[in-house]
Amino acid sequence: MAKKKTERKASNFKEAIGLQSILKSERTDFLLGMVIALFAVYTFVALFSYINTGAEDQSLLEHTRPGEWLNQGKVFKNYCGSMGAILSYTLVTKNFGYAAFFVPCFLLVSGIKMMQIYVLNIWKWFFGMGIAMIWLSVFLAKVLAPLMPEAIFNPGGYHGSVCVDFTENVIGPPGLTAVLFFTAIALLTFVSKQTITWVRRMFNPIKNFTGKASEIVTDKLSNTDSDTTDIEDGHTKLSTEDDKTTNSAKETGKESEPTPVIDLTEFSNLGAKKPNKATAEPIITATPTPTPIKTDGEKLTVEVGKDEKAKGEQLTDEAINTPINPLEPFTRYKYPTLSLLTKDENDGKPYIDMDEIKAYNEEIIKVLKSFGIEIREIKATVGPTITLYEITPAEGIRITKIRNLEDDIALRLSALGVRIIAPIPGKGTIGIEVPNKKRHNVSMESILNSKKFQETKYDLPIVLGKTITNEVFMADLTKIPHLLVAGATGQGKSVGLNVIITSLLYKKHPNELKLVLIDPKKVEFSVYSPIADHFMAQVDDDDEPIITDVTKVVRTLKSLCTLMDHRYDLLKLAGARNLKEYNDKFLHRRLNPEHGHEFMPYIVVIIDEFGDLIMTAGKEVEMPIARIAQLARAVGIHMIIATQRPTTSIITGNIKANFPGRIAFKVSSMMDSRIILDRPGANQLIGMGDMLYLNGNEPTRVQCAFISTKEIGEINEFIEHQSGPTHPMELPEPKGDDSEGGGNTGGADMGSLDPFFEEAARSVIVSQQGSTSMIQRRFSIGYNRAGRLMDQLEKAGIVGAAHGSKPRDVLIADEGQLTAIMNQLRG
Ligand SMILES: Nc1ncnc2c1ncn2[C@@H]1O[C@H](COP(=O)(O)OP(=O)(O)OP(=O)(O)O)[C@@H](O)[C@H]1O
């Protein structure tokens, strides 16, 4: 007991003097980091200086007299004074020799990490540099010391010389050499798996010289590598759902708040039996999806064999040595954490005002009675902004009679936004939705921190807010599959779109999702520009990934149509029905990258103020949108379009037919509501994110979550500093705009050959493979540039014409012919 008391006191004391907040503050970290970084530079200078001045300082250091360290007579020659000399003597002579330079290097890394200049795994650096320093110290003591007998200190330091003496006494010089060799290779293997290939080549020089060395990488090796990467990184693995939930699982795991249902029957003297507890059924049930086994990027480029369906075949030397596309993958990427969001002041619970509920309840009964409608029972379910009064009418009461009383009830309750649902689908009751006097904003944190979101298995989970029963409401965009968002100005559309984007960012890795953001208003999506490299896709020559210009919109939409056709070709070739099946096959190495196969991320196209586009570009925009909406579902392209002008000239029949998912925020007239939802209702909403979601029979009323621009900025900043792609995903050139790898070489300009032309021609001839994706990977260039290179190769007569997605025939058999072609081209 006494102990407990002291503990509590101590923590209170810390809190009282504000020590806790000082220690935990970002400012303290930053300043401490700067001190460490400066100390690292100081140590660096001291060590350098010690190499020249060490001889003079060393004798002083070994017999220092009291007070001499103050260096009043400038007896120490080190550039960093007596402290620099003492520090260098301790690190270099007494410990690690020249390897001591690793110490300031590590201090600098630590300082940079603390200042949050870079996101670094400090433990990895600590162990990596620590082991390298010990190894180098022993190596220098063994190899360099005999060559420098005059040196004032052992090049490997005291540590190195002791280790060498001890090990040589026990296992002799050959044993020590073997240990040094093994540890060096082991260390390099952890740095790069390419080491294995080099070592194999080193031990197989004959085959290497004849150019026929072929290493066999089995599945087993790949699996081991994969494990290695995980251990090495000590971070989230790329793909499993479990991993996705780990990003914030430690801070999370809240169940949805239980629905507060209040039985009002007893207040109402209705004398009815106790109603059943409202069951909070999930609005959309999760469909379990098989977790794809994703692998390291190096493995994504590994060739398995010529047969598309062959498994576990031996790999060719060429496949192993193919340069790895830097876009794949970023296993160290961390998903945004919940701490970036503002916590809900009321912990996600709605405010319950019993006086208000009782008063409304009485009024409802009174007004219904005045119209001759008897009630058997009534209960209230309190949501964040709306309370649902669910009434069971007495026998023989006609539902239409109650339905027509909407305005009368609203008048008596003096409340806007009263909506009657008669009957509530699936129940024999009638619902009256009445806005709460004190509304409760649904914070983004409260819905992302819910168990439902954390454990979701949806492929593209979009979480929208909370229902009237206070349940987290979410949907899978891949199932919707395209969404139309409409509502009058200022009613919450932009916030809604931000909520959707944020929920995707919290669950998706940059390799799995690419966004195409179209923003004619120019200001709505600019906050996302920091994550352009990680999460956006663009047609190559667009310098700004967030598209604001109408001509660029048309070009981007056409480019998406081209991409869609290309993806369909690949799906057909792979015998897959949809993107998920295709990616699954690819990740299990049943598809050959040499045949143009690649991992396909989902693409979500979000268009804000779609009305503006239709007004300015008309059919030119509508047609590609409708085409993508009709066909793109299977190839993982999904669209969300938003408008504040719900008129028939903007939301045309064509658009409506292809956008089954609809979100309506408050609109000004019943007509507008009918255009969006094919029924009234949106005109009775109360604004501020109050919305109706429709994807099927009956709309669901949802209070959209709220996320501020500040929160979005912080999330984007977090993502920006994660390891990830260095530029946005490149969308193909739209058909007709320019030639691409598809066969029309008319645009191939032979006057200005690509700088990679000769090298690309050589690699195509040597490998006898005319594949655009091979060139793309080998030279780490975009698809469009590789396509143009292929066109130039075709025009030069090196490869044949394209046959869909299959590699082209190579028309030249040896490199001698290439020299002749090159001479001819150079004139
Ligand atoms: N879910 C929400 N919860 C609380 N307040 C909200 C919510 N959504 C919107 N609001 C409030 O409404 C204001 C306007 O929202 P928003 O900018 O999203 O409207 P909009 O429909 O996009 O308008 P416009 O079409 O003019 O851009 C916000 O600044 C915010 O104060």
From TrEMBL:
The keyword Lipid metabolism does not apply. Residues 223-258, 721-753 are annotated as: Disordered. Residues 469-674 form the FtsK domain. Residues 232-257 have a biased composition (Basic and acidic residues). Keywords: ATP-binding, Cell cycle, Cell division, Cell membrane, Chromosome partition, DNA-binding, Membrane, Nucleotide-binding, Transmembrane, Transmembrane helix. Pfam families: FtsK_4TM (PF13491), FtsK_alpha (PF17854), FtsK_gamma (PF09397), FtsK_SpoIIIE (PF01580). GO terms for molecular function: ATP binding; DNA binding. It comes from the Bacteria. This is DNA translocase FtsK.
